[in-house]
Model the fold of this input.
Amino acid sequence: MTVQRESQRNHVARKRFGQNFLVSPGIIHQIVDAIGPRAGDTLVEIGPGLGAITEPLLERVDHLHVVEIDRDLIARLRDRFTPERLTIHEGDALKFDFGALKESGPLKIVGNLPYNISSPLLFHLVPFASLVHDMHFMLQKEVVDRMVAEPGTKDFGRLSVMLQYHYHMERMFVVPPSAFSPAPKVDSAIVRMIPRSTSTKLGSGETATDPSLFARVVTAAFSQRRKMLRNTLRTFISEADLAALGITPTARAEDITVADYVRLANTLAKFAKP
Ligand code: SAM
Done:
């Protein structure tokens, strides 16, 4: 079943803002249940749009922050919700400083994300992980599959390593195109992301000592994923040193684990130190 509310009428969905609005009450209910909002939570919704998730969230909490870029939609949200209940941050979520909300307590961030910016937005959120309690996002199913992929599978890539390093992630359920208006061409899925606290990050001793070096090594390894690590990482480490670390030099980027990448980067960080 789908619904078209009064608030949805006369809005032409803007492709450039990745606008596919949720219209299935059943799916909306399932998403809100997955988020599990409780009174007192500090909730932040990215891209509230016409309020499909915003409204049911506000039935469970007193107040919500939203970040929205589309001025027409912002005007509608202002008409519909009072500032006491809804704080609207007008602008681009890719530039939004989530740190500005840190005084409000651990953040629960949610959103049916615009698909055209989903990966950059996930990377934009990483530096704020220590302020976050959990995040629930709707993304293209194919992207969620890559986020939660296991090593040794074709979906395991840079996105998997970088996000699994920072978060525990779980694919919750798949959402068909019919749940949206306009309907996208592909399936979507809901993912739950819970930051690993620094102390539990992959177990003790497995935290990247130089996060930027870790990111560069991962990027280099997956830059040509069909090539062997001894080739893609040639500028970082010799074949013999790779083998000494217990990493098979003929392995490909997708064959080694997140913990292997951390170990590799930490060894390189030690070499680099005087
Ligand atoms: N939450 C609504 C729903 O589920 O029906 C709308 C989801 S729609 C897929 C994505 C929303 O994100 C739209 O409201 C769009 O205007 C907004 N948006 C797109 N790009 C954005 C950006 N860079 N920053 C903030 N919001 C953005």
Notes: The longest strand covers residues 132-140. The beta strands are 21-22, 42-46, 64-68, 86-90, 107-112, 132-140, 167-175, 180-181, 188-195.
